[in-house]
Amino acid sequence: MNHECDLCHGKLTPTLTTYTQWYEGRLIVIERVPALVCEQCGEVYYAPDIVERIQSLIWSDAEPVRTIETPVYELK
Ligand SMILES: [Zn+2]
Fold it and tell me: Which DSSP category does 67 fall into?
């Protein structure tokens, strides 16, 4: 994996992120996901093995560590 942003050529810094994805009508939140984040534009890059682990976790139907309530709004 490169250490330069594909979009702006900014410097990428390893960090832990919170990954969110809709799956079967529910919003799935995965905390503490390692990623590279561009210092300049904020673009987030995940290594292929991390993406694989995220997907298998989402598909595994595993028990979540906790469940949160999320407010939903409409822009009027
Ligand atoms: Zn960038």
Answer: -
